[in-house]
Each structure stands twice: as C-alpha cells, then as structure tokens.
Design brief:
This protein has about 230 residues and is mainly alpha-helical. About 70% of the residues lie in helices and about 0% in strands. It contains nine helices and no strands. Keywords: Membrane, Transmembrane, Transmembrane helix.
C-alpha cells in the first residue's frame, strides 16, 4: 500500500482529537457540557441560544469522528502482521472499531437534531438530549473489546522485530479499564459519576484522546520502518 496513504490514516488519530474538540468548543459543549441534572428548560435554552453555531460545531465534531475509521483500518493492517495466518484479534478489532465510530457519530447527530428545531417542546429536547448523551457515554463494551484485542495482539506478537512496542499493548489495557466507570452515568444526575462528571465524561474523554493521539503517532513511526520488518508465519 502507498506509504503516503498509510501516513494519512495514522494522522487521522490526532486530527480526530483536534477537530472534535474545536467543534465542541464552537458548539458550547466545552468547557462545561450540558448536565444530567438540568431541567428541560435549561437544556432547551442551551440549544436555543445560538442554534446555527451549535449545529456547525457539532457537525464539525461528527465529521472529525469519521476520521476514526481510517485509523481503525490502519491498526488492522498492522495487527495482521502481528498475528499472521490466524488474525482473530484483527477481525475483532475491525468490527468493534467500526462500532465505536458509529456509537460516537450517532449521538452527535442527535445533538444536531436538538439544535435543528430549537422551538420544539423542551420536554422533547430533553428526551433527545438524554438519549444522545447516554448513548455517547455508556456503550463501553465495543471500546473495551477493541482495546483488549489490540493489547492481546501486541503482547502476543512473535515477529523478530515487534510490529508495535509492547507498552502499546499495556496502554490499550489501561484505556479499556478507564472506560469502566462510564456505566455509572445511568445512576447519577450530578457529581463525579454523572455523565458530565470527572470520572465519567472527563476520564473517558481524556483516555480516548490519549489513545487516538498515541496510536496515530506510534503507527506513523511503524509505517516509516515497516518495509524492513518480516511478516509472522
């Protein structure tokens, strides 16, 4: 495959983080996201304040999330080299990686729907907002399985020169572990375990951003040296 295409896919990791955060800043989601304890009137006011700006920012974030898919594909290419003739973890990573992209994209589009008709009933806006944020935060299984699959493949790599450093495997296990508190968002409206809390939103956001940037940069380095690496039998 053309090296430039691979490098472009690798840069999609850091680009996702930068563009998505810029989009959220434009939309007003950051630095303080809408909270689970806010009333229907408060949530409706968030989307009514500047609907065009909110939609523009959320659309930019949604487009940025689409860059996850090229990164997932490049990870799969490298995992095939790790696993050789039985790339089970590769297939698992590709399936769950695609699912994670969809699970990030759909909630952002639901938020755009909230801003699309800011004059609708506040209760309906609240419902759509709840669905969007809970769908964005809580479906952690595909994310965790993807990280575990990558971690297993990296640590089981028996190539004379490992495709990726072993610490990348441990990093993926840690990122998977840091997603665990997210399911607590179902039980709390305020505090550190609500969807806007430090142990749910901020911890997951930081972990996923670090993962995207790290995997992108590590894969970029691997692409630069892959020509001299033998393939596992």
């Amino acid at each position: 495959m053309n090296e430039r295409v691979k490098l472009l896919c690798a840069w999609c990791g850091p680009a996702t983080v930068v563009l998505a955060l810029i989009g959220w800043l434009i939309a007003g989601v950051l630095p303080i996201p809408p909270a689970a304890h806010q009333s229907a009137a408060d949530i409706a006011a968030f989307y009514e304040d500047s609907p065009s700006r909110t939609m523009a920012g959320l659309i930019l974030s949604a487009l940025a999330v689409g860059l996850v898919f090229p990164l997932v594909a490049l990870i799969g290419v490298h995992m095939v080299r790790m696993e050789g003739r039985t790339p089970l973890m590769t297939f698992l990573q590709l399936v769950t990686g695609a699912a994670t992209g969809v699970l990030l994209l759909i909630p952002l589009l639901l938020m755009v729907v909230c801003a699309f008709r800011p004059d609708r009933s506040p209760e309906l806006t609240l419902l759509l907002n709840d669905v969007a944020w809970l769908l964005f935060i809580t479906p952690i299984a595909p994310f965790m399985i993807q990280n575990v699959a990558i971690g297993i493949a990296v640590l089981a790599d028996r190539n004379p020169e490992p495709v990726l450093p072993r610490w990348v495997g441990y990093l993926n296990f840690w990122v998977a572990f840091l997603f665990v508190p997210d399911v607590l968002a179902y039980f709390f409206y305020s505090g550190p375990f609500a969807w806007q809390g430090i142990f749910v939103f901020w911890l997951a956001l930081t972990a996923y951003a670090v993962w995207l940037v790290t995997m992108g940069l590590v894969l970029r380095r691997s692409v630069k040296t892959s020509a001299a690496v033998p393939v596992a039998a």
